[in-house]
Amino acid sequence: MPDRPSRVVRNTSTSVVTIERFIIEQEELHPGASGSLSGILYDLALAAKMIANKVRSAGLADIIGSAGASNIQGEVQQKLDVIANETIVKAMDHGGRLCGMASEEVDEIIPIPQGFKTGDYFLLFDPLDGSSNIDVNVPVGTIFSVLQKKGGPGPATLADALQPGSAQVAAGYVIYGSSTMLVYTTGTGVHGFTLDPLLGEFLLSHPDIRIPAQGRYLSVNDSYAQLWSDPVRALMARYRGLDGKREPMNVRYVGSMVADFHRNLLGGGVFAYPANAKSPKGKLRLLYECNPLAFICEQAGGAATDGQRRVLDVVPTELHQRTPIYIGSRDDVDAATAILAAN
Ligand code: AHG
Ligand code: MN
Ligand code: MN
Questions:
Q1: pLDDT tens digits for 131-144?
Q2: How far is it, in rounded angstroms, from Cα 20 to Cα 38?
Q3: 288 CA distance to ligand 2 centroid (A)?
Q4: Rounded mean pLDDT, 26-36
Q5: Which of helix, strand or coil describes residue 15?
Q6: Smallest-distance ligand from the CA of 132
Q7: 331 domain-assigned
Q8: Do both 106 and 223 map to the same domain?
Q9: Number of structural domains, the chain?
Q10: H helices then E strands: how many in the chain?
Q11: Which of 35, 54, 314, 337 is the one with CA 20 to 30 A from 236?
C-alpha cells in the first residue's frame, strides 16, 4: 500500500474520493487500528481490477487462442474461475496480514506459503460468482469475507474459518457488469465504488447505501417450485401478491447472486434460494456467499434469514456448508421468517 496522504476533510459532493483514500479515512475512525485491515481491502481492490481485466477479455480467449498465442505450448485454456481464484491468492498471500484463506474453489484451507509472514486475519472468498454466465456475457462477481484469527499467532486452522457471520470484520463484493463496482462494509455502513477504466481507480460513487424497507424485485429460480415445501410455495405466493396481502413484486433473476443481490440492494427487493427436495440445504454457500452478503445487507438496513434463523447467527460446522437464504429488504425478509419459521 502506498504512503498515506495527509488527512483531508472530505466533501463527497465535490471531491473525487478514491477507494484508497476512503479506506484510510475509515481507518482513522478507529484510532487503535493497525492498518492491516486497510491493507487487505486495498489488495482486494487490486485483485478485483486484475479479474475485471480478465472478465472483460473473456470473449476473446478463443479468438486469441486460435492464433496460436495461448495454446502453442499445449496449455489448456484455464477456466476463468480458476484464474480468478489464483489471482486473489497471489494478490493476498504475501502481505503478512493473513494467517490463511478459504475459497469456494479449493477443498481445504489455503495456507500462507513458507517464507511469508502471517497475520491476524482470515480471508474467505467466492472468486467468480455466476461463472456459468461468462459464456453469455452476463454480469458475474467476486465475494469476500474477512474474519479475525482465533487464538494465538501462527498458521490458520479450521476454527478460524468456522466462525459465525456476526464475527466478520469486513465483507464485500465486486460486480463485473456494464461497469465494475466494488461494494464493501467494515461495520460502519455500506459504500460502493465504481472503477474508472481510464484512471484504473475505484472512485466513491455510492456512499452509505441504504436498502428500501420494502422491495420491488423478487429474485428466485422458480423452476424448482415443484420441489419446494408448502410453506416456501406460500411465501412465493405472498411475494407475487397471489394471497392479496401485498402488491405483486417484479420477478428478476440473473442467475449470478452478486448481480441479483446488487440490483435488490439498490432498488429494494428480496433474493431467495430456498431448500428443495433435491437440495435440502439449498445451493448457496454460507461462508463464501451468504455470510458476506448478509453482513452487507444488514449494514444497509436490510436482513437475511435461512428461514429459521438470522444467517449471521448460524455457527458453521463445515467449510463448504450450504444454506437456504432469503436476503434483502427488511419487511420482505420478515415475511419469509413469519411464514417459514411458523411451519
Ligand atoms: P457460483 O458460480 O459461484 O457457483 O455461484 C452460482 C450460484 C449463484 O451465483 C446463483 O444465484 C445460483 O448459483 C444460481 O443457481 P440456479 O441455476 O440453481 O438458479
Ligand atoms: Mn457463487
Ligand atoms: Mn464461484
A1: 888 888 899 999 99
A2: 8
A3: 7
A4: 85
A5: coil
A6: 1
A7: yes
A8: no
A9: 2
A10: 9, 13
A11: 314
Query: Atom 14 (ligand 1): residue with closest C-alpha?
Result: 255
Report which residue type is found at 322.
Answer: R
306 lies in which domain range?
A: 217-340
Residues 79-118: b if buried by 16+ CB within 10 A, e if exposed: ebbebbbebbbebbbebebbbbbbbbbbeebbebeeeeeb
Residue 171 maps to a domain: yes
pLDDT-based confidence at residue 152 (cuts at 50, 70, 90): confident
Q: Could you read off the pLDDT of 225-264 as tens digits, one per residue? A: 999 999 999 999 999 999 999 999 999 999 999 999 999 9
The DSSP output letter for 27 is H
Contact between 150 and 161 (Cβ < 8 Å): no
| Ligand 1, pocket residues at CB < 6 Å | 104, 126, 129-131, 221, 255-257, 283
Output the pLDDT for position 13.
54
Whether 155 is in a domain gets the answer yes
Instruction: Give yes or no for residue 5 having a pLDDT over 90.
Output: no
- Identify the residue whose cell numbers are 496522504: 5
